[in-house]
Specification:
four-stranded antiparallel β-sheet; 3 helices; binds adenosine-2'-monophosphate
Length: about 180
């Protein structure tokens, strides 16, 4: 039987922005808000693939390498809490078309290759806390961070010794 891996396409956050977000989060949320996502794990999911075979992963990796998508700039100016999934997140009030198109292309290729895609509309976000099931006081605003997206990546999610780790397997540049 072939080994399956839990994979997803995502945008990474530069290390400087990761640090800024972590500092702001510590200053604006109580410690018991939920399970904080570690700095290195902060990202924006573009398409979740689930547990897939090497064969499927290979096919989707080749497809990703042929995608022609443009660079874009994203303003992280929105905050919210989804009590159902227990996620506190930051996102954007105005998602650029290039981001929506990239996610849409990746999600449709994923679906065509048998990776179930959520029927919920794509809502680009960076998860800050998980397991936040109780009401959360949401700060009135974020510092309006700017994310310059210059590439997108395929990640593997692993769970070892009680910790979730996202490992970047491959990245592809976005065009000027
Ligand atoms: P998130 O973007 O809200 O954090 C790896 O598990 C990533 O894929 C996480 O970032 C997670 O959500 C997203 N993810 C996990 N399960 C998912 C699912 N069933 N549908 C869509 N995205 C999922």
């Amino acid at each position: 039987m072939s080994v399956e891996r839990r994979l997803f396409f995502a945008l990474s956050l530069p290390a400087k922005l990761q640090k800024q977000v972590i500092k702001w989060r510590a200053e604006h949320f109580p410690q018991d808000t939920g399970r904080p996502v570690t700095a290195a794990n902060l990202h924006i999911t573009l398409a979740f693939l689930g547990e897939i075979s090497e064969l499927k992963a290979g096919a989707l990796t080749r497809i990703a390498g042929r995608i022609q998508a443009q660079k874009f700039s994203l303003c992280l100016d929105d905050i919210g809490h989804w009590p159902g999934s227990g996620v506190v997140w930051i996102g954007t009030k105005r998602a650029p078309n290039a981001l929506l198109q990239l996610a849409s292309v990746l999600r449709s290729h994923a679906a065509r290759n048998g990776c179930h895609q959520s029927t919920l509309p794509f809502h680009p976000h960076v998860s800050l806390y998980r397991s936040a099931t109780r009401p959360v006081a949401i700060p009135p605003a974020t510092p309006d961070w700017q994310l310059e997206a210059e590439d997108f990546s395929l990640y593997e999610s692993t769970y070892e010794r009680g910790r979730t780790r996202y490992r970047c397997l491959q990245s592809w540049p976005l065009a000027d």
